[in-house]
Amino acid sequence: MIHLYSANDHLVAVLDGQAYRIEMTLDALFTAENPFALLMARIAKANPTNEPSHPRAPIQSQEVWAAGVTYYRSRTARIEESTSSGGATFYDRVYHAERPELFFKATPHRVVGPGEPVRIRRDSKWNVPEPELTLAINSRGRVFGYTVGNDMSSRDIEGENPLYLPQAKVYLGSAALGPALLITEKPLPPTTEIALSIRRDGGEVFAGTTTIDQIKRTFSSLAEYLFRENEFPHGCYLMTGTGVVPPDGFTLRSGDEIRITIAPIGTLVNSVT
């Protein structure tokens, strides 16, 4: 199990508590046939270093995509927000369908890293974070790692009309990734917990947890559908959906702090602007 951090001009791999400076790009890792084996070989020849104090988002040329309605709680929330638009049945149907909902989320320049601010849209009044286990998939369609993702969402815009999904999901600062990319040859345990905490004015205003065994679909199936009739020359990230949804009366405010923890990976912290 390797924790990989993105520094200013290099990568830092942490294995068994020791950090190593890796002179390699993320693009090279995502295009490798076996990213874990490649990184282990580089670690064997690398010099020890310190863990970066301010890691960047672990992304270079990768697109970020997302899967929707993979948790029952997400299905329920999407139905509730879309009842007035007549689109509620779409989400119930996709939850039970063989084909998943997959949508484009962000290009690298729209992604922020740990400690950087995510954004809420000026033309939206109902905004929430969506804490998600995010898959790292190489250019051959193989899932080789995981990171923490925040799929920022404007619920009122999507709820007005499902066709507005791209505007509700894709905008500058709409996604966050980090703090590390966990690279492992073993799948994460089904009991792996995703925890969300939102703080405002020094106090916690929302907290929730879920586990990845609540995801309806397998990761291999999501990756296979994403790569159908498509290619990703530099690999990609795929957010796997959220099972933690704040209540309908809650919306983010500028100045809030969002903390998403997936214990094997770390805690992603972002402010809101």
Give descriptors for this structure.
single chain, about 270 residues, alpha+beta, Fumarylacetoacetate hydrolase, domain 2, 2 domains, 11-stranded mixed sheet, 4-stranded antiparallel sheet, 17 strands, about 20% helix
Could you characterize the architecture of this molecule?
With 273 residues, the protein is of the alpha+beta class. It folds into two domains: 48 residues, no CATH class; 209 residues, Alpha-Beta Complex (Fumarylacetoacetate hydrolase, domain 2), CATH 3.90.850. It has seven helices and 17 strands. Strands 1, 2, 3, 4, 5, 6, 7, 9, 10, 12 and 15 form an eleven-stranded mixed sheet that branches. The protein has a four-stranded antiparallel sheet with strand order 14-13-16-17, with no helix packed on it. Strands 8-11 form a two-stranded antiparallel ribbon. α3 packs antiparallel against α4. The longest helix has 11 residues. The chain is globular, with a radius of gyration of 18 Å. The two termini are 34 Å apart. The model has no long low-confidence stretch (mean pLDDT 94).
Based on secondary structure, the structural category is alpha+beta
Structural shape: globular
Number of domains: 2
* Mean pLDDT score: 94
Number of helices: 7
CATH fold call of the largest domain: Fumarylacetoacetate hydrolase, domain 2
Class of the largest domain, according to the CATH hierarchy?
Answer: Alpha Beta
Poorly predicted segments: none
Helix content: 10-25%
Strand content: 25-35%
Strand runs, count: 17
Q: How big is the Rg?
A: 18 Å
Output the helix-strand order.
EEEHHEEHHEEEEEEHHEEEHEEE
Can you say what the CATH homologous superfamily of the largest domain is?
Fumarylacetoacetase-like, C-terminal domain
**Main sheet attributes: strand count, strand direction, barrel closure:** 11 strands, mixed
CATH architecture of the largest domain: Alpha-Beta Complex
How far do the termini sit from each other?
A: 34 Å
